């Protein structure tokens, strides 16, 4: 039984790794991204995105977290190509219905608002994928996090991948090794994994994403003992054994709306909310060292977060004549 489980997971690791060269070779797709891409064609693009995001976040603080996550879910599936934004249609099976996104991914209306403001000023010029990359940066800054120049010039995809969304985006109950492998498949390493997980310094999780830890961590009816037991009792009040699946919990219960390094401090105190957060401390020496470093030094976290966001934003973009500039982020042109 154990042997079989091992061989299934080994098989998965190999099949994921075999996809790697397809996923992050930018050069093969014929171009590079750079921050000045719209300086002539739409000089106001960055300001337009920033002002729509600022309004949306002023209305609802959580929107910063939701937009940041949307960019991650875009980039991991077929690269940063706006695929996550496509609705179901006759030719598209939307990624919005995948396990990681269903009843969870949000911010699509704000992306619509950004896109229509961009279309008004510079019709047919700025891609949805770039708009989302800028929105993720602006969201981070608005929440108090670091800033960075966003390389631009991505085109939008003409398709989506439901299976990619289900299989490549890490799940909260994946093992550390599986999560790291999923990052490696898209060209990211353990440093990127730990720094980018720091996004969980803002935003919410639903009860259903961590319930297992409270009641039945490994199938024997026992809780996860790497979770602080008084914190666990608090969580149980609104995350019962059954029901309340959609109830919301802060990912960082100390400073839930501020982008800072409390996420890492919480993990050191055995108060990381998701299993995927806590395993960064408990399952790998390399990631444990990084968690400690970022908990100690906010500046170090910020510098690495910015670098890793640029790296994530570079995952196989469509450039040049590949892809299109969608008129509406929810559907491909001429459909
Ligand atoms: C390392 C693997 C990761 C796993 C397993 C993971 C998993 C999750 C889960 C389960 C949630 C809660 C969803 C829900 O219950 O509705 C969540 C929320 C969130 N994730 Fe991650 N995540 C990971 C990495 C990342 C990365 C790389 C980013 C961004 C760069 C990110 C940004 C966020 C944000 C900001 C939220 C809160 C969203 C909101 O409040 O709307 N996560 N993540």
TrEMBL record:
The entry's keywords: Calcium, Disulfide bond, Glycoprotein, Heme, Hydrogen peroxide, Iron, Metal-binding, Oxidoreductase, Peroxidase, Secreted, Signal
Entry superkingdom: Eukaryota
Binding site for Ca(2+) 2: 201, 252, 255, 260
Enzyme class: oxidoreductase
Annotated catalytic residues: 73
Coiled-coil stretches: none
InterPro entries, per database record: Haem_peroxidase (IPR002016), Haem_peroxidase_sf (IPR010255), Peroxidase_pln (IPR000823), Peroxidases_AS (IPR019794), Peroxidases_heam-ligand_BS (IPR019793), Secretory_peroxidase (IPR033905)
Primary location: secreted
Keyword DNA damage: no
Known cofactor(s): heme b; Ca(2+)
Transmembrane segments: none
Free-text remark on how the cofactor is bound: Binds 1 heme b (iron(II)-protoporphyrin IX) group per subunit. Binds 2 calcium ions per subunit.
EC number(s) on file: 1.11.1.7
Gene Ontology CC terms: extracellular region
One GO term (biological process): response to oxidative stress
PROSITE patterns hit by this protein: PEROXIDASE_1 (PS00435), PEROXIDASE_2 (PS00436), PEROXIDASE_4 (PS50873)
UniProt domain Plant heme peroxidase family profile: residue ranges: 32-333
Gene3D superfamilies assigned to the protein according to its UniProt record, in alphabetical order: 1.10.520.10, Peroxidase, domain 2 (1.10.420.10)
GO molecular function, one term: lactoperoxidase activity
Disulphide bridges, residue numbers: 42-122, 75-80, 128-329, 207-239
Biological role: Removal of H(2)O(2), oxidation of toxic reductants, biosynthesis and degradation of lignin, suberization, auxin catabolism, response to environmental stresses such as wounding, pathogen attack and oxidative stress.
Protein name: Peroxidase
